């Protein structure tokens, strides 16, 4: 199945305020999809709907459909713990837990019932390698995660996300708190990860979206204005609003 996540006539509201308007999207498996658009257009809300992060906001309501491999994400009977194992998330600011590097990566495994120390060791190593961090930390796994640089912390958060073997990784502005070198490392890493995972990234940084994404989704005031292959959109946007955004005239 080429599509993994589908929004169908999806609307969402914080209280009375509608923030997503009739969204229709098919996110493609094992591709990098970038959601772009000016501040406040609803990018994060759209991303956070996918793993139901907004459940914590009591005023948040949705209508329409949001489907993950034929299953409705907002189905009352969905087991959220199992579902979130498939859909990992990485945030704007790296948020390591106040524990060692090793424990940060192994944390989720224990929740999911993996107890065998040898198995955990292996997954920790594999995840840190997958997040391109292993060589920098392999001799200090018991050190506090806070001893790492911002860029290393963000790669640690990516390692933590991939440790539980997800299918999708949602990234919400993952490099906006990082310097250019750390940003470049994360971008390269995201490209590598897309071989195994479906990546959906929200970014303010248009140049970044152009560099790394296969597909682009341009939003404006809660609506999806234009989407398609990134290369096509940047060459020849079909809609004037998209062209204005690409040319820096909006946002
Ligand atoms: N918890 C909340 N309660 C009420 N309104 C909210 C909440 N979170 C976001 N909003 C509103 O929803 C709209 C969309 O916000 P959202 O964060 O999804 O946009 P965004 O495109 O990601 O913005 P930015 O790029 O600035 O992060 C904004 O008007 C915002 O003020």
TrEMBL record:
Gene Ontology biological-process entries: phosphate ion transmembrane transport
One GO cellular component term noted in the UniProt record for this chain: membrane
All residue ranges annotated as the ABC transporter domain in the record: 5-246
Keyword line: ATP-binding, Nucleotide-binding, Transport
A GO term for molecular function: ATP binding
One Pfam family hit: ABC_tran
NCBIfam families per UniProt: 3a0107s01c2 (TIGR00972)
Name of the protein this chain belongs to: Phosphate import ATP-binding protein PstB
Species this protein is from: Tepiditoga spiralis
């Amino acid at each position: 199945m080429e599509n993994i996540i589908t929004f169908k006539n999806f609307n969402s509201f914080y209280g009375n305020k509608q923030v997503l308007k009739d969204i229709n999207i098919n996110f493609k498996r094992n591709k990098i999809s970038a959601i772009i658009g000016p501040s406040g257009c609803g990018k994060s809300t759209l991303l956070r709907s996918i793993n139901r992060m907004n459940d914590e906001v009591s005023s948040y309501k949705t209508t329409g459909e949001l489907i993950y491999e034929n299953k409705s994400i907002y189905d009352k009977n969905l087991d959220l713990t199992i579902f979130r194992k498939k859909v990992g998330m990485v945030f704007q600011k790296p948020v390591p837990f106040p524990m060692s590097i090793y424990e940060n990566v192994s944390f989720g495994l224990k929740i999911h019932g993996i107890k065998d120390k040898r198995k955990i060791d292996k997954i920790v190593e594999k995840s840190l390698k997958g997040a391109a961090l292993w060589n920098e930390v392999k001799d200090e796994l018991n050190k506090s995660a806070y001893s790492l640089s911002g860029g290393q912390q963000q790669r640690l958060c990516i390692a933590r996300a991939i440790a539980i073997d997800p299918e999708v990784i949602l990234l919400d502005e993952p490099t906006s708190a990082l310097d250019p070198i750390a940003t470049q490392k994360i971008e390269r890493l995201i490209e590598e990860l897309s071989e195994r995972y479906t990546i959906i990234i929200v970014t303010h940084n248009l140049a970044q979206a152009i560099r790394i994404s296969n597909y682009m989704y341009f939003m404006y005031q809660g609506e999806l204005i234009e989407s398609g292959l990134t290369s096509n959109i940047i060459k020849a946007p079909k809609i004037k609003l998209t062209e204005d955004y690409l040319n820096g005239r909006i946002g």
